[in-house]
Amino acid sequence: MIKSTFLNLLIVWCLAISTTSCSSTKNFSNANPEEKLDWKLGSQAYTFKLFTFAEALDKIDSCDLRYVEAFPGQIIGAGSTEQMGYGLSESGRKLVKDLLKKKNITLHAFGVVGAKNEEEWEKVFQFAKDMGVKVLNVEPAEEHLDIISRLCDKYDIKAALHNHPQPSKYWTPDVVLASLNGRSSRMGAAADVGHWMRSGLDPVACLKQLEGRLFHLHFKDLNTFGDKKAHDVHWGTGKLPLQEVVNELKRQKFSGMLSAEYEYNWENNKDDVKQSAANLRAIL
């Protein structure tokens, strides 16, 4: 009888441990549902351009985001007055890597970056390789496209053409696709859904047009459509058809980074980014 009772208690205890374990796993997945889709939800450091890179990482961490897209020219901070970019010294690069490790944040992308000539583009790619960057977001001169194509293959790094609003060169997917034609498969698109909206373009239709070449997204929602002066609002509360965008990315089996780029309320936009990420995760 005692032996039977002990066995029953042991079974109940094992089931409780198993249930707790499953519950913990489930809660983690629910908190970060984008991980199941291989979406790397993070922030463009430009969102926090008024601050140092070190301070930007603090803000990104507080938003429960684990990826960052750095931009050229941001002061590193944490005791360093150096700027982000290929000109960073060895000690500066080590500092950046240490800051990232401390916050458990991955430097996935770098941009939007340009260069004057092939020599400078080479330095950009060398820097990206050293820092572990997977995607360079670029807006190159047309005569530099073949240079970038070669460097993508040489360094095994993706380069994604970014769209600023009309009349910038890559404002429409038609121009992006024409620029990619015949070039490295490591070249693709860095889609800014907000800039498409500013240019009066349907972001879902644009995503469909770029299927297979979509490497990275600058993610934002805007208060108005077709207005270059439109400003950011919390994702899902503006004119971006957020559910349709999510559905299209899922249909394409998109795998890459979604950079929160909140270009409004510059001095205090951390909570705006946090709420936007929460809204996206709720939909997912």
Automatic annotation (TrEMBL):
Gene3D superfamilies for this protein: Divalent-metal-dependent TIM barrel enzymes
Domain Xylose isomerase-like TIM barrel: residue ranges: 76-282
Signal sequence residues: 1-23
Keywords: Isomerase, Signal
GO function terms (MF aspect): isomerase activity
Record has Endoplasmic reticulum as a keyword: no
InterPro entries (alphabetical): IolE/XylAMocC-like (IPR050312), Xyl_isomerase-like_sf (IPR036237), Xyl_isomerase-like_TIM-brl (IPR013022)
PANTHER family on file: HYDROXYPYRUVATE ISOMERASE, INOSOSE DEHYDRATASE
Name of the protein in its database record: Sugar phosphate isomerase/epimerase
Organism: Sphingobacterium olei
